[in-house]
Amino acid sequence: MSGSDNFEAMAAPAQDQRPQSQTGTMRDLDAVYDIPVQISAVLGRATMQVSQLLKLGRGAVVELDRRLGEAVDIYVNNRLVARGEVVMVDDNRLGITMTEIVKSDRGS
Q1: For the segment 8-26, what is each residue's pLDDT rounded down to a tens digit?
Q2: pTM, 2 dp
Q3: CATH architecture of 38-101
Q4: Could you write out the DSSP letters of every residue in 25-87?
Q5: What is the reported pLDDT for 68?
Q6: Where are the domains of the chain?
Q7: Which residues lie across from 90 on neighbouring strands?
Q8: How far apart are CA 75 and CA 73, in angstroms?
């Protein structure tokens, strides 16, 4: 690939939804689509000493820094990219609905 390739559309829509004018550029990015990424949804955080952690047992409650109903943070490869809400997918599965995309502080 040359340095002049356009990589600004890394989060491209599904292939069937791509604008016709960008089809060539999107085809150049097809190799990127198969790269696995780690996605994490953080419900909240807590800080404690190791001695406190070791005393926790089954059924222990750890108080987090978020309130019920607050947005959860969504990370991709340890980088905050969005916020969302927890939703019930099936009777026993949870999911996250993205409600806000977080703008990057990086200039590139």
Answers
A1: 333 444 444 555 455 667 7
A2: 0.61
A3: Roll (2.30)
A4: HHHHTGGGGG----EEEE-------HHHHHH--TT-----SS-TTPPEEEEETTEEEEEEEEE
A5: 86
A6: 1-35, 38-101
A7: 93
A8: 6
